[in-house]
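Help! Submission page says 'invalid entity' but I think these are all valid:
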Amino acid sequence: MQDANQVSASEEFQRGLEEGQGSPHEAPSLPVGQWLRKNLFSNWANGILTLLGALAAVVALRGVLNFVFSENRQWDAVRTNLRALMTLSYPESQYIRVWVALGFVVGLAGLSAGIWANWGGVSVRRISTWLMGTGALLALCVIVREPSVILGSDGKVIRTVDGSLRRESFMDAMADRSTWWLAAVLLLAVGAALWSRFSDPARRRIEVSVTSVVFVGLGLAILSLWIAPYGHYAYISATKSYVAESGRTVAFSTKMPWTVMLILLSGFFFVGRFFQRGRYLGLVKGSSNVLWLISPLTLFWVVLRDPALDYGHVISTDLPMGLAFGLLGGALLWGLTRSDIGEAGRITATVLLVFAVFNWVAAFFGWYPMLQKARISFLLLALAALLAPNFIGEVAKRRQLVLGWVGVTALVHYLATMINTPSTVELQSTEFLGGLGLTLFVALIVVLLSFPLGVLLALGRTSKFPIFRMLSTSYIEVIRGVPLISVLIFFSVMVPLFLPDGMELAELAAVLTGYTLFSAAYLAENVRGGLQSITKGQYEAADAIGLTSAQRTGFIVLPQALTVSIPQLVGQVISTFKETSLLAIIGLFDFLRVANSVIPAQSEFMGVKREGILLVAMIYFFFNFTISKYSQRLERRVGLGER
Amino acid sequence: MHALLTEQKSGRGAGNRNREGLKQMRKNIMWRLLATLFAIALAASACGGSDSSDDSSASDSSSDAEETEVTLAASGESLLDTIKSRGTVNCGVSGSAVAFSELQADGSMAGFDADYCRVVAAAILGDANKVNFVSLTAAERFTAVQTGDVDLLMRNTTWTQSRDSEVGMDFGPTTYYDGQQLMGRESDGFSGSSQVSDVGGSVICTSAGTTTEKNIADAAAEAGVSIELQTFEDFDTVTNNFISGACDIITTDGSGLVGRKAKQQPDGENWVIFPATPISKEPLGPTYGQNDSAFADAVNWAVYATIIADEKGLDSSNVDMMLTGGDTETIRLLGGEGELQSGMGLPADAFYQVIKQVGNYDEIYSRNLNPVGLSREGSANAAWTAGGLVYAPPAR
């Protein structure tokens, strides 16, 4: 009998091996008992280690659960301050702006996912193990958590003579947690049903797409807003008191917007899917890239701030200036891309560059006045003129440069005008946006802007042209030799002192600049690591088929180098996101600071700090874990680590 | 032959594809170059775009006229005029001082100091809500005044000789008389009448890097007792260590201790605060840059107005009645004759607005400090008529 079992088990194992050959990541499946014996209890030493490890895990879990559900925890502090944690001072009446901004980002994310993401599938059997695992963990949590403290009729905790707390009996506690039991059993049952239904060889490999799993998961989370009564306490400033709003729960005010967000995400995902096979794919990809670069800045300074434009000034000054730069600059570039331009083009570009740089030097010493926008525009025009030789030739190519220039000018002038216009959103303090909103915006802007800058720096450092190499190397080394916090303090305290009279830099803009420059230096080193992994043969092959150096970089070197550096780049994104908490030191209210110093200072919740910090940690973990999981999938898709 | 033909064909096809591929490539590379330019442009506009122009005659900002005025004011005129033309008072507060300035769940600022910021705004601008609160750390507060980021501080700032002279600050009338005290457990044998000499051998905890640390060390040395001093990052941690028993005694300003006792004392324990006469003097009040008497007078008299109103029994509920029915000083204070306030550059009804919109000293005190257990009676903050130190010169 035992022999027969053994045989069938080894057959199963064989089959598992055969099936496993298709995808190297799926381990051949063994019966549970055998798997345990093979991996966890192969000899007595391993068995003891396994048991000790499991014991340590259970003790840690029990500690965490007792901490979270302790009667001493004041979760009301977090529930009341949800708004402060998310946006701090942003007025509630203007919340539609926050939702619009979020909706735009969510829609764009959906579009990008639709165009690029090909996450493949996950077998139903795998999902069933997730469900069973969750159910088992939930059941374990229910069992190991300490029984609750008994409250007297006056609502106070009952203590025994020696001052220790009186707790209900274990059986009572289990009975009290019947809802959780039900959920755990339900998960286990559904998981087991799926497992048994999909375990015969024919069905074993049935898969559903990861995308649909993600959408169903998000859908369930948002559905819970409609069903579960997540509590909400409102702060009444007139009476300085907190009122539990039984009817108006958190879910009440956010369930509709979140549902819209899900619809936007899935809608744009399918739009992206539609274009994935269409002939406009290039156009859609290009515009979504551009939108990613523009949207955080625009959303922050235009949608959230709602600038009060002075139309007289716009028509008399801003618009003519933008038009002049767009049209005259366009005409100049059109001239510079004539095929008979020769050496004159180079000379013009150099003269322009010298003039543009001189404008900044003059600004520094205050020699002559000039609008900041004009300085930026001249510098950009000089850069465009330097690029012009690449566009010499056919009319279509020349038109590309001119149209590109006009687009860039329009955008820069638009953003500069908007940023300089005062906000109409009525605030009670200088902190325009705080909490998670600030953290996410800073992280998004810094990551998006530092990427192109970092790639340029890496190329500069590996360039054969000594001046580029020297400048990039010294920049990277200087920035990397200085801690982030001192860069931030330098930009928020020192830079304003260096600026000429009358020029000022908003604190947040200063911080964004400093943080972007810092992050770009690290990113450059990651990309350089990738660049060095490209063998000499690749360069030679590119030269052999007659590619220019720009083409060689753009089509041969960078795609391979960036692919190799995915793990480091994702690591950089994660650390950028986490290090936004340093903003607290230079006086901005990121959401860790809200939890750490704003909530404990409210007389209602004096000293209540751990709850908020726990929530903040959970939110950080959620975002970073998601990013990390996504990057793992990406690595697998591009076949990293398998060559 | 046939095979050859096919090969040729396919060869030509491949050549075409190659050429097209290259063309496509060139087109793409240009897009990339443009995109890079674009990214630089964005970065530039993010960094440079928020600089305000240094050419005020053709400024980007729609409020250039106002900015010019601001520059003029900063170079010679009083901050009082700057505030009037700006329309808001920039008030530096702590933002995390329980009952003095706390950021509420809806982002508003509440507390005793915050209300005194409102008093100044009501006096100068006639609207108590025209305050822009700037949360400052202890380290950055004086710099913020010197660079003009804030007009004044209402940030638990103790009036000391060095700050008044070397640091270049001027101090207004004290709004709250604080002093460092100690808090211990009754079960450890401490009582309200304990002295520093009774704490020998105890573990005393306080927050690091403050003068409280030095004060308690000095006091213990003077009393001739040896103590074990432990410091922690902030006072929340200090209190948690006191609750867990790691500290026998904690010490900081009396106002802070009373708040902690009211909110965090566990059932069945009794915390006591001693000695009755604090071991240090901490007069807290408005702080501003030196040598600007017009602004200093406005702030000082706005604070005095709340104190005089308290003396006269004038509060936000009866101020309309007293406008005509009060004694002569009251009527003068509320702008009945009009010359006193107008003479110092304030609207005639400045102090009427203060009392009406924010309240008198007692109202401000009870609203913010009573909920955390700080009472006026018997403390230094009682009116001078009741044995306290709160006193204002006469309005005449």
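Support: the input was valid. A stray whitespace character was the problem, and the output above is from the cleaned input. Residues 2-48 of chain B form the longest helix (47 residues).
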